[in-house]
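INFO  loader      accepted 1 record
INFO  loader      residues=213
INFO  predictor   begin
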Amino acid sequence: MTKISKLFDSNRAWAEDITEADPEFFTKLARQQSPDYLWIGCADSRVPANEIVGLLPGELFVHRNVANVVVHTDLNCLSVLQYAVDVLDVEHVIVCGHYGCGGVHAAMRNSRLGLIDNWLRHVQDVMRKHRARLDELPTEDQRLRRLCELNVIEQVLNVGQTTIAQEAWDRGKALEIHGWIYGISDGLLKDLSVSVSSHAEFEQVYRSVAEST
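INFO  predictor   done
INFO  writer      dumping tokens
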């Protein structure tokens, strides 16, 4: 059996298990998707969004890229965000990073990996912004862990600054943006306490982050 054919076998077994538990599951799923959450996470294969939070297909809208970065010129990410907020009417946007992120580590070490170096400049901007706080930490591992957290916090602010989030709050839509981080070594999520659900909360968190740099 080839590695590819094994995936088809696994798919059939998975579909059979789902159907056995709920014979109408795929029929209902085909009619529509109505997730309450948008997950913006890292592309790392060790961070499967649905499984981490125990949600089934159709319950979590997902966008992933290297180092879970939100850039205002990234039309892919912005299109996902706009569709989730304005069409699917999600009420929660979760930016989730993870400890030990290879992209964050490469940015911290200024590694040369190729085209991706340009993408990781955004993480290096976060590192430079918080250089004083990072330099206070005694070990590289501690600095990496903290940079993974700071990167999530900055991306929460980036989501909140988009016209999509700003206009949603303008019209009174319930929309909350959260910053979480995942531990690959224990499988647990940590809330970074930067949730924002209004213009006022966003400004408060923005000032708090700015004052701590």
